[in-house]
Amino acid sequence: MRMKAVSSILLIGGLLVLAPDSARATDGHFLHGVGAVNSAMGGAGIAAPMSLLGTFYLNPAGLMAFDGTRVEFGFEMFKADRTVSSDAGMGMGSTRSKSEFVPIPAMGWSTKFADNKVAVGVGALAIGGFGVDYAASTSNAILAPRQMGGFGQVYSNYGLMKISPAIAFEVTEQLWLGFAANIDWASLTVDPMPVGAPAADPGPDGVPMTMDDRAIYSGATAADGAFGFGFQAGAIFRPNDLVAIGASFNSAQYFSDFEFNTTYDNPNLANFGTPRTIVFNLDVPMMVGAGLSLKPMPQLLLASDFRYMFYEQTDGFKIPDAQSAFNMDGSVAGFGWENIYSVHVGGDFRASDLVSVRAGYNFSQNPIPDSLAMINLPAPGIVQHHATFGLGIRPTRRIEISAAYYHAFENEGAGMFLSPLGAMPGTTVENKMFENSLLIQFSFATRGSM
Q1: Does the structure show a pLDDT above 50 at 203?
Q2: What is the pTM of this model?
Q3: What share of the chain is helix, strand, coil (3-state, %, to 5)?
Q4: Contacts of 233 (CB under 8 A, 6+ apart)
Q5: Distance between CA atoms of residues 338 and 285, nearest Å
Q6: CA count, 13 A, side-chain hemisphere, 135
Q7: Environment class of residue 113 by beta-carbon count within 10 Å: exposed (0-12), middle (13-18) or buried (19+)?
Q8: What percent of the chain has pLDDT over 70?
Q9: Short-list 376, 438, 449, CA closest to 412
Q10: Are 61 and 170 in contact, with CB atoms under 8 Å apart?
Q11: Which residues are registered as beta bridge partners of 81?
């Protein structure tokens, strides 16, 4: 009976993870934390394995912290508020993206054996993404109809999830080591898709490579999926009951190409409406992290993490060889994101056997240079400061229900209009973004206490 119940929970969790909606990131294009417990702690958890979901996200060595068999599944309702404003000499126009709550699922399972010296488990987590939905506009220059030199309607939707089978070992009573294989899946759609060369005509003056040229990018409106692979390794050292130190390494995740079937979209050219294929590679950057946790009293746990993300070395995010944002054919060379770090701090106070209260803070650098604000209109991952709060309720020793809320405060980035000929003086493109999210998580254990 117990195995049937566990199997049912895993099946439900698996179906949730395969849901089509995507995550919208907070640290670069990553979630700052996964699950209600880890998110409420500001995402800190490399040295503080408080939940399976956070452990699979951050440090597989933390599996050794959970006794018996444990199952967790979580659900997040995420809402980002994005606005783009622009001025091309006719006054500033502003457009707010269509914004709805996006469901973000996660689940995890682990068990111990070999006299509790070894733990194995698997996690399935939505961990990142981006997206906008801007209507075409006659008052906002960047969203002007495409035949008039704007992008028209702009829509993007990128979702990233990973499945991580993991194993952890107790090397000594003080040292835990863990390893996980990351099997990744991502879905992407962007309209218009600037990584394909635009269909360009010389414009009214008939002279190519002048400012009146009409260059129209094709759309990639039919989403394509791609698989990626990498690995994760981590360690936790506990010299005593008061202090723990952790380290984690996530390799770059290498993906197959996205391939989009589309058409040439410039009605002024003879190839208008004829088929074409656009190929784009978007990998996931390597990430390294370190964490510290302190337990100054039995009821209080404090945790902090530092992480570093290597976007400048990652296909799709990097601009190769420090070239222009555009290739010679007018296609965009890459998002141009910079390497960033993030800092996470959080605390968990066990007010009683029934209730825990959690709070945290997360800061992330903005990976997008102001000069590339226009290029990153479909992916405005610019928020930096997050305040997080949470509550855990334990109706029994082996069940915990956790809830959390976080707010990412508004940030903005502005630059000039760009073209293959360079920046256009006297123009402005400004992205703004803030986020709110609600989370719930259910945790079950067959042995020990929550």
Answers
A1: yes
A2: 0.92
A3: 10, 50, 35
A4: 60, 177, 178, 179, 180, 248, 249
A5: 11
A6: 9
A7: exposed
A8: 93
A9: 376
A10: no
A11: 434
